[in-house]
UniProtKB/TrEMBL annotation:
InterPro entries: ADH-like_C, ADH_N_2, ER, GroES-like_sf, MDR_fam, NAD(P)-bd_dom_sf. The lineage of its organism: Bacteria, Pseudomonadati, Pseudomonadota, Alphaproteobacteria, Hyphomicrobiales. One of its GO terms (molecular function) is oxidoreductase activity, acting on the CH-CH group of donors, NAD or NADP as acceptor. Residues 14-331 form the Enoyl reductase (ER) domain. This is Enoyl reductase (ER) domain-containing protein. Transmembrane segments: none annotated.
Length: 334
């Protein structure tokens, strides 16, 4: 069982030395457990948080432990009557070739319904993050302007397309001309803005002549700085992620901007709410039904970035935090 463990904790951006490839015996399932062979491993920005010591909304990965992560695999052996060899399952056994899990923690994936790896992307955790965060907190209305960054990724692309279905004018932010082209041509955004352009704040302003009603916060950093002055009264801001800040080791330089932020929250009556997708676990059925139909009808499109081989997961993950991925980042393990 080849697996990748956390060798050391990063200070700032993760580096190759923070990961170690190991080989261990393939485990066998005890009562109520299932052994699966990993087919697909999901790489997600939240994993950067798990590499730090100290409790966030979830426990950190300990040094020497297998890196955490969602995976789709094929059942090899099972002592549970819910699963049999050959079944395809979604679980959370991490960066390794074989996963052992309690049957109660696995979900069956139907290969007839959609490509199985979409259970890690548009039809899985990132897709549900987009759906629940946008509809519950963003509350999109016809004619409003929505802005989202990391907009070619699985969360951002889905947010933009659902907002479009709800009648919004959608502005996507991404890094580089190729991604910006995909925002318009593949994902149907009304406008695309490149956050790496030197005049990004001016371009964003020009893209939002009526201001911003919903800002779905995926990145923080300079994107937030450019968005802030454009927010309309009663803007809604689902705070989903801050990938530009995940590897920060100190506060940004310059004066404290908290009074300015709280002043605007008061006078412009913003509604800002952080959320973790599992807060909306009770809406999973609605998500599978409604988003599943939109995907089948071609109203939600998705893009995948596939890396071959478990040994290439660390490099791919480091790239994810810098925007080197183009679409949902997946490792094809076999
Ligand atoms: P993506 O596949 O979109 O990957 C992250 C992207 O972030 C990169 O590709 C890059 O895109 C962009 N990015 C990185 N650094 C910067 C920067 N400095 N400025 C602007 N953009 C940057 O990721 P996901 O769709 O999986 O996740 C999107 C966000 O949602 C993340 O913040 C993640 O943590 C969060 N999330 C939150 C969940 C929750 O429950 N709250 C659940 C799932 C995800 P580009 O090249 O376009 O800049």
């Amino acid at each position: 069982n080849r697996r990748i463990v956390l060798a050391s904790r990063p200070h700032g951006e993760p580096v190759a030395e923070n990961f170690r490839l190991e080989t261990a015996p393939v485990p066998s399932p005890s009562e109520g457990q299932v052994l699966a062979r990993t087919l697909w491993l999901s790489l997600d920005p939240y994993m950067r948080g798990r590499m730090n010591a100290g409790k966030s909304y979830a426990k950190p990965v300990e040094i020497g432990d297998v890196m955490e992560g969602g995976a789709v695999g094929e059942v090899i052996s099972s002592t549970s009557d819910r699963f049999k060899p050959g079944d395809i399952v979604l679980g959370h056994w991490g960066w390794q070739e074989y996963g052992l899990a309690d049957a109660s923690l696995l979900r069956k994936v139907d290969p007839a319904e959609a490509p199985i790896q979409t259970a890690l992307g548009v039809l899985g955790m990132p897709g549900m993050t987009a759906y629940t965060g946008l509809l519950n907190i963003g509350q999109p209305k016809e004619g409003e302007t929505l802005v989202v960054a990391a907009a070619t990724g699985p969360v951002g692309a889905t947010v933009g397309q659902i907002a479009k279905i709800k009648g919004c004018r959608t502005v996507g932010i991404a890094g580089g001309p190729e991604k910006c082209r995909a925002l318009i041509e593949e994902f149907g955004f009304d406008v695309a803005v490149d956050h790496r352009a030197p005049d990004f704040p001016e371009q964003l302003k020009a893209a939002c002549p009526d201001g911003i009603d919903i800002y779905f916060e995926n990145v923080g950093g300079d994107v937030w700085t450019a968005v802030f002055p454009l927010l309309n009264d009663f803007a809604r801001i689902p705070v989903c992620g801050r990938v530009a800040n995940y590897s920060d080791t100190e506060l940004p330089p310059g004066p404290d901007r908290t009074p300015q932020l709280f002043g605007a929250i008061l006078t412009k009556r913003f509604r800002i709410q952080g959320f973790i997708v599992r807060d909306f676990a009770s809406q999973a059925k609605d998500f599978y039904r409604e988003a599943g139909a939109w995907i089948r009808e071609g109203r939600i499109k998705y893009r995948e970035d596939v890396v071959e081989g478990l040994e290439n997961a660390p490099e791919a993950f480091m790239g994810l935090l810098k925007g080197r991925n183009f679409g949902k980042l997946l490792v094809k393990v076999r």
